[in-house]
């Protein structure tokens, strides 16, 4: 056991919980509005709610800050922590876990994509670029949910093919699992709309959606879908 390394991991979780979205919402005096909208619609992604009520610009600000907080912490852990690959991978997982399942302000918890991007840009940059290109291609095809699923699933696969350290490959698998678990939040609300449970789970996991794909202008997958959160 390495006490200093454990502290970096714990700190990673705490850094992940930093409530960027909540602070942006407070700055716009809209936290109560977003919380009420979440309760009324069953939508659990605060970035989606921000887009609906504050616009894409403020959502982009929050998402960028979420990427930055993860990137900055993992970069600091690698530079000043002197951590081995196994501990760095745990730090990366902890950051994403804190972002998706914070112990406070859970109504403003992200879906994990932005924090994952920040982690990967430090530890698996090539893999993140590939994932990002897939997501951009999905956005062009108006199917960002499925593209994000494919992109984030590709990270550990490409890492393994490239011969990245085993802990980094395992981190990619763990992060993907966290993203999928987080997507399942609110699946009960989807079922209550009349969608069969199995289909509701499939829509959430594969499409990051509350229903089947819709061909309409803008982001694809969920109504008023935003860039990854």
Give the structural class. mainly alpha
Poorly predicted parts: 215-227
* Proportion of strand residues: under 5%
Number of helices: 12
> Mean pLDDT, nearest integer?
85
Q: Separation of termini?
A: 34 Å
- Gyration radius (Cα, Å) is 17 Å
The total domain count is 1
Order of helices and strands: HHHHHHHHHHHH
How many runs of DSSP E, i.e. beta strands?
Answer: 0
Percent of residues in helical segments? over 70%
Biggest sheet architecture:
none
* Global geometry: globular
Topology:
Elements: H1 3-16, H2 20-27, H3 31-41, H4 46-54, H5 56-80, H6 85-100, H7 113-123, H8 125-140, H9 144-161, H10 166-183, H11 187-191, H12 197-207
Helix pairs in contact: 1-5, 1-6, 3-4, 4-5, 5-6, 5-7, 6-7, 6-10, 7-8, 8-9, 9-10
Explain the overall architecture:
This protein has 229 residues and is mostly helical. It has one domain. Helices cover 71% and strands 0% of the residues. Helix 4 runs antiparallel to helix 5 and helix 9 packs antiparallel against helix 10. It is globular, with a radius of gyration of 17 Å.
Features:
single chain, disordered C terminus, 12 helices, mainly alpha, 229 residues
TL;DR of this structure?
The chain is mostly helical and 229 residues long. The chain contains 12 helices and no strands.
